[in-house]
């Protein structure tokens, strides 16, 4: 199946000369959740805005469902819904009117049944006649999601969907994404919360300084780049590492109460057996040991640092 | 053409008028009535007639034009500035709507609102002074052309402005003086000769002159010149908007 979104050599240099996107290519498959990770100012929003038609590309091509987003922008934009990062301010309009406007902008006839379903799905039905300014921040964000969904897009862009919201609301947003995915909507979200990508994404792209430095299946990425940490809690603290243990990559931690060893879980030899033997040879007794997989966040920090 | 989208924007903008009915309709009517009392009643009673028309009746076309221009300008500038200010403009710009459709919808709504105010002022004026309308078709033509032209100018200002100060600046510092000096309250022929020549540089003179001619059959400049200048002004605004959309100026970086 051809990708639902195909970006080829897309670049963007703003009028001031700032190059926000270096030539970048990316394919998004129908039905997947793709997380675009990157630090602030990496080019995430520029990339999304260019696909959605808010920013003019300096070069390259964007095909949405096979339609060029410059020459066939009407067909292309019909397939896309956008939930922006910035929350619109000062709205006196009622929720349902806002949703109706969004549908109208896409040239579609009114559909009150659909609007009712979307508002109910997003737990907004009770607030349908409330003015936007009366709603809490989380509710407002859901209104934005409703507005983006009311023309039944095939691709939904969520730009920083959980920036600055509390934990409960973040979980709420994750549930919404899961529901949408189940309906077959392709979702592209940007975030700098790694746990968000870890929780929701099928694939992860990492962007930094306008360059897409990596695109990988999330699980594969975790496997490939995931390093593990072995921690051995000693029965009695030591002040110096015994000679037999030096040169193995072990560090003293917790003021000598434990030993720390970082290894590649995918490696042929992890070195763990050797370490355990060396511990026994040195006569060090331990009362516990545990291993920890590095999180996407740690992987991400490493990647961005290296690039 | 995406007509449903244009309709959606148009109706949305018109709904804003309903929400702010005092500001949109009542205040221009009130201020125009005050003009009638001050200029028509107090001062007008000391000026007998201008070119055979009572002063109170003479100022009616100018007053309508002045309100029409300021209303079209402020409605259109506010209409396109506000979604940029609140951040909702993304929705219009990412929808399958062309720039032409966006312009028609916003400018159409602003012009409509201004024309509603203009008609209300006309009806209010009928209560104060006897008014004749010699060339109703021409009056309508100047009325619509002026509303559309100034709505286009307002649209440009609304895109250009990046704060409320700028949004107020142009109408206040340029358009209001031009409207006042454009012969709303007097005939250009009443000015000293040098000022008469200078006045001809003011585009508003042609609009008011043409509009007044359609009421009383008398004008400061010829009808053809009035119409030509009005159309020229309209085309200039259209050209600027075309340039804005071609370059993405401020709307699409």
Automatic annotation (TrEMBL), chain A:
Query: Keyword set for this entry?
Result: ATP-binding, Nucleotide-binding, Transport
Q: Which domain of life is it from?
A: Bacteria
The reply to whether Nucleotide-binding figures as a keyword in the UniProt entry is yes
According to the entry, every stretch annotated as the ABC transporter domain falls at 5-234
Q: Name one GO molecular function term.
A: ATP binding
What family, per the record?
Belongs to the ABC transporter superfamily.
Which PANTHER family does this chain map to?
Answer: ABC TRANSPORTER ATP-BINDING PROTEIN
Protein name in UniProt: ABC transporter ATP-binding protein
Q: What is the lineage of its organism?
A: Bacteria, Pseudomonadati, Pseudomonadota, Alphaproteobacteria, Hyphomicrobiales
Automatic annotation (TrEMBL), chain B:
Q: Which organism is it from?
A: Roseibium aestuarii
**Quick check: keyword Flavoprotein in the entry?**
no
UniProt-annotated location(s): Cell inner membrane; Membrane
Name the keywords, alphabetized: Cell membrane, Membrane, Transmembrane, Transmembrane helix, Transport
Per the record, membrane topology reads: Multi-pass membrane protein
Q: List the signal peptide residues.
A: none
- Where do transmembrane segments lie in this chain? 21-43, 55-82, 114-131, 138-161, 167-186, 198-215, 221-245
Where would one find coiled-coil regions in this protein? none
The answer on whether this UniProt entry bears the keyword Transmembrane reads yes
Entry similarity comment: Belongs to the ABC-2 integral membrane protein family.
**What protein name is recorded for this chain?**
Transport permease protein
Domain ABC transmembrane type-2 span(s) in chain numbering: 19-248
Source domain of life = Bacteria
């Amino acid at each position: 199946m051809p990708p639902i979104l195909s970006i080829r050599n897309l670049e963007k240099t703003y009028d001031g000369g700032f190059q926000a996107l270096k030539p970048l290519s990316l394919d998004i498959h129908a039905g997947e959740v793709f997380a675009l990770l990157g630090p602030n100012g990496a080019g995430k929003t520029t990339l999304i805005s260019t696909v959605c038609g808010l920013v003019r590309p300096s070069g390259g091509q964007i095909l949405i469902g096979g339609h060029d987003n410059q020459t066939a922008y009407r067909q292309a934009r019909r397939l896309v819904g956008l939930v922006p990062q910035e929350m619109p301010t000062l709205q006196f309009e009622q929720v349902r009117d806002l949703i109706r406007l969004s549908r109208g902008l896409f040239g579609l006839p009114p559909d009150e049944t659909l609007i009712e379903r979307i508002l109910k799905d997003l737990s907004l039905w009770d607030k349908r006649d409330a003015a936007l300014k009366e709603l809490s921040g989380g509710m407002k964000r859901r209104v934005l999601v409703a507005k983006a969904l009311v023309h039944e897009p095939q691709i939904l862009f969520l730009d920083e969907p959980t920036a600055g919201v509390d934990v409960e609301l973040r979980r709420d947003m994750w549930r919404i994404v899961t529901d949408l995915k189940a309906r077959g909507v392709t979702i592209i979200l940007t975030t700098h919360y790694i746990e968000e990508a870890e929780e929701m994404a099928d694939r992860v792209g990492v962007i930094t300084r306008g360059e897409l430095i990596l695109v990988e299946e999330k699980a594969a990425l975790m496997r490939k780049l995931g390093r593990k940490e072995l921690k051995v809690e000693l029965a009695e603290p030591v002040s110096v590492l015994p000679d037999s243990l030096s040169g193995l990559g072990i560090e003293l931690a917790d003021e000598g109460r434990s030993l720390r060893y970082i290894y590649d879980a995918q490696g042929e030899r992890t070195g763990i057996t050797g370490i355990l033997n060396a511990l026994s040879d040195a006569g060090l007794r331990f009362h516990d040991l545990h291993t920890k997989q590095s999180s996407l966040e740690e992987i991400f920090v490493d990647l961005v640092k290296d690039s | 053409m995406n007509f449903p989208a244009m309709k959606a924007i148009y109706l949305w903008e018109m709904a804003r008028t309903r929400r702010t009915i005092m500001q949109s309709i009542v205040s221009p009517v009130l201020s125009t009535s005050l003009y009638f009392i001050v200029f028509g009643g107090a001062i007008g009673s000391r000026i007998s007639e201008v070119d055979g028309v009572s002063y109170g009746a003479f100022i009616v076309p100018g007053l309508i034009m002045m309100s029409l221009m300021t209303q079209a300008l402020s409605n259109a500038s506010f209409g396109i500035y506000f979604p940029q200010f609140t951040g909702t403009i993304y929705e219009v710009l990412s929808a399958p709507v062309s720039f032409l459709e966006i312009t028609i919808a916003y400018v159409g709504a602003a012009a409509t609102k201004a024309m509603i105010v203009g008609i209300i002022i006309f009806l209010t004026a009928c209560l104060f002074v006897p008014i004749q309308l010699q060339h109703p078709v021409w009056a309508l033509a100047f009325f619509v052309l002026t509303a559309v032209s100034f709505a286009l100018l307002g649209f440009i200002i609304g895109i250009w402005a990046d704060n409320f100060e700028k949004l107020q600046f142009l109408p206040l510092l340029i358009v209001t003086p031009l409207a006042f000096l454009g012969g709303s309250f007097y005939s250009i022929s009443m000015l000293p000769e040098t000022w008469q020549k200078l006045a001809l540089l003011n585009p508003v003179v042609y609009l008011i002159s043409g509009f007044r001619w359609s009421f009383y059959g008398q004008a400061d400049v010829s009808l053809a010149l009035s119409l030509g200048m009005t159309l020229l002004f309209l085309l200039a605004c259209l050209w600027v908007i075309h340039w804005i959309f071609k370059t993405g100026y401020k709307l699409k970086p």
